[in-house]
Write a structure and sequence with these properties.
The chain has 153 residues and is mainly alpha-helical. The protein is built from 4 helices and no strands. The chain is elongated, with a radius of gyration of 17 Å.
Amino acid sequence: MDQNSQHNETILKRFRGIALAAGVLVFLVIAFGGIISASGSKHTCPDWPTCLGQWTPPVGNGALIAYTHRALTLLAFPALLIAAWIAWRHFRSIPTLRRPVFFAFGVYLVQIGLGGWISTNNGAEMPWLSAVHLGLSLLTLAGIVVSITAAYF
């Protein structure tokens, strides 16, 4: 194996790792969003990005669940960003790897804005808006999963 192919394999392994991390984090964001809906914790953090004006979650009233959802969202963002950057930088010629991760990152940006709007504008009272929020999350997860699959095959 020559040095160039070793370098490409190293970059591909890095992409796989960061994309897998992003996929797991997005899955956890979705899971905690479901826990928020099922537990009735939707109204515990009515402001955004803080929770009741604090950067740390208040004790009790389910705010820790909502805060964990936000923290996971924050952690998934750089993982998706780095995956998209690696795809743009090194895999431009592989559309089956590049396009899905770009799609996932773009939808995730919209998702963050929608989640913030739902939190601050009583959007949790609109079931259709919560369905759109979930749908965008699932599209994000689908994009990253397709990209991960392309990276392995």
